[in-house]
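A quick aside before the break. I want you to see a complete sequence-to-structure record at least once, exactly as it would be stored in a machine-readable document. Don't worry about memorizing anything.
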Amino acid sequence: MDKLGIFVNRQTLSSSEQLTALVKCRDVAESLGYTVEFIFPVDLKKIPKLDALFIRANTDPMNITYVAARIASLYGVSVIDDPDSIRICADKINMYMHLMKKEISMPRTIFLNKKDVDVERIKAIFKELGKPVVIKEPSTSFSARVEKVASVTGFLKVARRFQKLSDWIVVQEYIESKYDWRIGVLNGELLYACRYIIPSETFKIQASVNGHIVYCDVESVPMDQVPQNVIDLGIDAGKAMGHGLYGVDIKESNGKLYIIEVNDNPSLEGGEDFNYPDMYRKIVSYLMTGDTATDMGEYIQDYGPYCFQEEYSLGAAPAYVQGDLPTDDLCTYKINFSDK
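That is the input. The structure line, written in tokens, reads:
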């Protein structure tokens, strides 16, 4: 009998909502005739013996989830998230460049090297993008290290803090909205749709306010109530990343849509399946019957370390990118772990 492994860690199991979602996934897989085993970080040696691996722990090229994804890929085990998607989505510069390559709508964006951060450059950015702007550290997740600034002093303060972790920061125009669309995409098809209702105290889906963490509300939306252009844009953004499972965040402002993020490890425990009862069945079926991920070595050979050719290589797109981007490996940002 074919076996599905669900990769988890202590953090995953500490949430009752995530635990409930894991049980749902397991029950669906077993109802389809598969056996299921929860795989912990100490169980990496079991991965080659699986038929598929579903990673439900925070993904990053610098932690154990990427190791698990690479082992699965190397042994021909179907895996979500695949190594390519982790590498792309964990690095916002790489992610946004994939969107730019496909000419997908997103906020006006500047990649700024630490050596280019000075008062005159900041003033020019405010003139180009308006006030406020949003600054992001490239490896951020769950809205961490994402700040809104409207002054030169504020910009310098945030940029210097983020550049302790990375030589580069992402600067974007601020798109105001009361909610984000979250479009779940699996293998280039709609998986679910919901709204993230932004807390009034912040502009992010999760933030610390007066010492307390505030979260967005999740509102599952039936497919027939989701504008078709929102679905189409979400699917296009997912396809720009690959063929796996993605959560695409979209803002709508003045009749225009903007991709804010593409997440390779989207949450599934917030009620996303309320109007999409076949969500887990689709995920399990794709894992157990779909093709394995493309080997990254072949991808690099064809497209180079940044996965782009010619005019789409990083360092191109002069309207967006200032300075020379690093020429070494995709994910080698300078990180001071003492500041984490």
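Two observations worth writing down. The chain is about 30% helix and 25% strand. The CA atoms of residues 17 and 269 lie 6 Å apart. We'll return to this after the break.
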